[in-house]
Design brief:
The chain has 469 residues and is an alpha/beta fold. Helices cover 39% and strands 20% of the residues. The strands form five sheets. A seven-stranded mixed β-sheet has the order 12-13-14-11-10-16-17, with helices on both faces. Strands 7-6-5-8-9-19 form a six-stranded mixed β-sheet, with helices on both faces. Strands 3-4-20 form a three-stranded antiparallel β-sheet, with no helix packed on it. The longest helix has 25 residues. The radius of gyration is 23 Å and the shape is globular.
C-alpha cells in the first residue's frame, strides 16, 4: 500500500483563523504531520471495512444522534461560523439546523435509496446491488462551512463509506466541530476525520491508495485540479463548482415578490453562495420598475456586526475576496455599467462591502462573464422571453437559476431550455436533501443529495443468478 509520501512543504506548521469582521486572529491550529496523516488514513480504512458491515438501522441510530447533537450545540457551532467567516448569527444557526435535517433525512431513507433493484432479464434472478467504495476525501469551502460538509457526509456515512475532510483553512474550528459531532455521537474512530493540512497537500491525498474517491465543492480552478488528479489515479469524483446563476424576470411576473426574493437571493451570506442569483435578466417592458423595486429591497441589507441579530449582512470571508469584487465592478463600470446602489468601500475594519446594484450591464462585462462571489447584483435588459433564455445560457457556468412568470406552464417549458442543474420557477434557488443538487458545464458534474447523491460513491454492482431462462 502506498503510504502518504509527502513532506509538509509550508515553513509554518500552523494555520490561523481570522475574524473577517474585526481582522483579529481567533486561533492557531497545528498542521498534521506526515506520521499523523498515515495513522489517520490507516485507521479510516480499517474502520470503513467494519462500518460497511453494520446494518442501516445501526448506522441510522448514530446518524440520528448526530442530528440531535447538532441541535443541542447549535449556538456554539453557529457562533464559530460567524466568527470564522462572517455569516450573520441567525443565518449560521439556520445552517446548523439544516445539517441536522440532512442527518435525519438520510438516517430515515438510506436503506430505501440503496435497496437491491430487481430487474427482469434472461437470469432466474438479476438485480442491482449498491456497495460502498471506501474512504472518500471531501475538499470543502468556507461559505457554508457546516452544510457543504454534511450534505456529503450524511449520505456517504449512511451508505457505509468513511470520510476524510480537508476543509478550507479559514474555517478550521468549524471543521473540527464537524469531527466532534460524529465522535460524540458514537461513530467509530476513523469513520469521519478532519485533517489540517495546506491546500497543496490535496494532490498527494488523492494519489494515496487509501483514498477511494473524492468530492469537492469549490472554485472552477480547484475543481479542474481535483478532476485532473482524480483522473490520473482513476478515482471517482464529484465536482460542485461555481455558478453565475440567472434570475429571469418576465413581464407577467409578480414584480414585488420577484424583487423581494431577488434581494435575498443576491445578498444573503453577503452574496457568497454558488447558487445565489447573480445575473438579473429582466424583460424590457418592466426593466425600470424592477430596478426601482429591487434597489429598494436591497437597501434593507445593511452591513454590521454579524454577531448582532439585527445585522442583515456581515463581511466577506476575506479581504482579498472583497478586493477581487471591486476589480470586477470597476471593470464593468469602465465598459458602461452604472452603479445605482452601493459600490464603495465602507470606512471600517474588516472585509465589509455594501450591497451593490449595477444596471445597464451587457454580456461583455466582468460581472456578466465571471462569477461574482460577493454582494454585487448585475441587472441586464432582455428584449423578450426568448432573449432572456439566450442570455441566461450565455455562460460557461450551469449550476442553477430562477425564472419568474405569471404563466406556470410557459415557465415549465422555458425551464427545459435553460442549461443548468436546477431551475426554480417563482422561487429562490436552494439546496434541499430531497432533491438532487449539482451543475453542468463549468459548474461541475455529479450530484449531491436525494437518492442520486447517496449513490455517487457506491459501486453499482450487477448480480446475475443462473441458470438462464
Amino acid at each position: 500500500m502506498t503510504q502518504y509520501g509527502s513532506v509538509i512543504s509550508a515553513q509554518t506548521k500552523t494555520v490561523d483563523s481570522i475574524n473577517p469582521a474585526t481582522d483579529a486572529k481567533l486561533e492557531s491550529f497545528a498542521l498534521h504531520t506526515q506520521a499523523e496523516l498515515d495513522m489517520i488514513l490507516d485507521r479510516a480504512v480499517a474502520t470503513q471495512r467494519e462500518w460497511s458491515q453494520r446494518t442501516f438501522a445501526e448506522r441510522g441510530i448514530l446518524m440520528k444522534r448526530a442530528g440531535a447533537y447538532l441541535r443541542a450545540n447549535a449556538a456554539r457551532f453557529a457562533l464559530n461560523a460567524t466568527r470564522e467567516m462572517g455569516k450573520p448569527i441567525g443565518d449560521a444557526e439556520a445552517e446548523v439546523e439544516k445539517c441536522a435535517w440532512a442527518c435525519d433525512f438520510y438516517a430515515d431513507n438510506a436503506e430505501k435509496f440503496l435497496a437491491d433493484e430487481h430487474i427482469s432479464s434472461t437470469a432466474s434472478d438479476s438485480y442491482i446491488a449498491y456497495q460502498p467504495l471506501g474512504v472518500v476525501l471531501a475538499v470543502m469551502p468556507w461559505n457554508f462551512p457546516y452544510w457543504q460538509v454534511f450534505r456529503f457526509a450524511a449520505p456517504a456515512l449512511m451508505a457505509g463509506n468513511a470520510g476524510i475532510l480537508k476543509h478550507a483553512s479559514n474555517v478550521t474550528r468549524c471543521a473540527l466541530d464537524i469531527e466532534e459531532v460524529f465522535t460524540e455521537s458514537g461513530f467509530p474512530a476513523g469513520a469521519f476525520t478532519t485533517v489540517v493540512v495546506p491546500g497543496a497537500e490535496v494532490k498527494r491525498l488523492i494519489a494515496d491508495d487509501r483514498i477511494a474517491a473524492v468530492t469537492i465543492t469549490g472554485s472552477e480552478p480547484a475543481g479542474v485540479s481535483v478532476a485532473s488528479e482524480s483522473g490520473r489515479y482513476l478515482k471517482k469524483h464529484v465536482l460542485e463548482l461555481g455558478g453565475s446563476d440567472a434570475f429571469i424576470v418576465l413581464a407577467d411576473a409578480n414584480l414585488a415578490e420577484a424583487a423581494k426574493t431577488a434581494a435575498k437571493a443576491r445578498f444573503q451570506n453577503a452574496g457568497q453562495s454558488c447558487i445565489c442569483g447573480k445575473r438579473f435578466i429582466v424583460e424590457d417592458a418592466i426593466y425600470d420598475r424592477f430596478v426601482a423595486a429591487f434597489v429598494e429591497e436591497s437597501k434593507a441589507y445593511t452591513i454590521g456586526d454579524p454577531e448582532d441579530r439585527a445585522t442583515k449582512m456581515g463581511p466577506l470571508a476575506r479581504t482579498d475576496l472583497r478586493d477581487d469584487l471591486v476589480k470586477q465592478i470597476e471593470g464593468s463600470v469602465a465598459k458602461g455599467a452604472r452603479v445605482v446602489l452601493g459600490g464603495t468601500l465602507p470606512k471600517r475594519a474588516g472585509a465589509f462591502f455594501e450591497a451593490t446594484v449595477l444596471v445597464d450591464v451587457d454580456d461583455t462585462m466582468p460581472v456578466f462573464r465571471e462569477e461574482t462571489f460577493g454582494p454585487v447584483a448585475a441587472v441586464i435588459r432582455a428584449r423578450d422571453a426568448e432573449h432572456a433564455v439566450e442570455l441566461a445560457n450565455d455562460s460557461t457556468f450551469g449550476l442553477g437559476g430562477a425564472l419568474w412568470t405569471g404563466d406556470i406552464e410557459r415557465g415549465k417549458a422555458l425551464a427545459r431550455r435553460i442549461v443548468t442543474g436546477a431551475v426554480f420557477i417563482n422561487g429562490m434557488t436552494a439546496s434541499d436533501p430531497r432533491l438532487p443538487f449539482g451543475g453542468v458545464k463549468h459548474s461541475g458534474y455529479g450530484r449531491e443529495l436525494s437518492y442520486l447523491g447517496i449513490r455517487e460513491f457506491m459501486n453499482i454492482q450487477t448480480v446475475w443468478v443462473g441458470p438462464a431462462k
